[in-house]
Amino acid sequence: MRSGTPRRRNKAARPLSLVLALVLLGSLYAALMPSAQVAADTGTSAQVAEGKALFQVTCSSCHGLNGEGTSQGPSLIGVGAASVDFQVSTGRMPMARPGEQAPRKVNTYTAEEIGKLSAYVASLGPGPAVPKSSQYDYSTLTDEQIARGGELFRTNCSACHQAAANGGALPNGKYAPSLHGVEPLHIYEAVRTGPQQMPVFAEGAIPDEDLASIIGYLKGIEDQPSAGFSLGGLGPVTEGLFGWIIGIGGLCLFAVWITSRGARAK
Ligand code: HEC
Ligand code: HEC
Predict the structure, then answer these.
(1) Which GO terms describe its cellular component (predicted)?
(2) Within a domain: 103
């Protein structure tokens, strides 16, 4: 009798807790999501204030207490939320020390903190906003659009990033990085904000549809090479190794076959 009770309770409790969990999840979603979206778009005053506090701790030594810039770093007035999101998410900022070029590093900030920093910098002056995912979505592109993205890439970007987007050296010890593995969001933001030597391409120069095509093209060539390249990319070494293993292996098998035939013939 005792062992039966908990079992019966369990049977009823399972669907009930499932329903409860669903209701909780639903209301949590409802409570959190819309406010997060609004905040990401406009930046609430609380977010701006918290962003300012964070900024003054980690960024102001180079960018000034109010983002006005110092001899160590440029003014951030008018660079926009997209620039902060790009620079901090890719680990370029905060820069460890002023140098030739801020390299990509592991980002140590949470999305929430980056949102606050972005909201604060956006409040200093109008600049490019962090895009919505629909602006850089490349999943529905046709082959034609992707081919056009390739053309646009060759005209606008390959001079620095090279035709296969593997990156290349620039004058004065600077470089344009490889674009393989860069998130679509960060490609969008880099194009709109022009980090360092890179020019800004505004909507007038490259509209959103064209930018999505470029992103689609970049993601396409990223997938492609791995199939053909793994052998060809290492060139003669891999091919030599292949030849060695198959060639010598084949010869050994042949030798074994010959000897076994010879043995049988005797
Ligand atoms: C050690 C100095 C230093 C620190 C600390 C630093 N920055 Fe920077 N920052 C720079 C320099 C120098 C540049 C310009 C050169 C570059 O982009 O590499 C720059 C560029 C930027 C840009 C690009 C501006 C543009 O024109 O689009 C943004 C945005 C930015 N920093 C944000 C931040 C934020 C946010 C923090 C704090 C989390 C931070 N930085 C901390 C030195 C610094
Ligand atoms: C004049 C040279 C130049 C041109 C033209 C140029 N870029 Fe760049 N690009 C750079 C440099 C330099 C950087 C590195 C900036 C930094 O590290 O702060 C960069 C960075 C980037 C990044 C960031 C990569 C990362 O690792 O986070 C992306 C994405 C990018 N470029 C895409 C493009 C696209 C797409 C185009 C064409 C529409 C383009 N670039 C045109 C020089 C250029």
Answers:
(1) plasma membrane
(2) yes
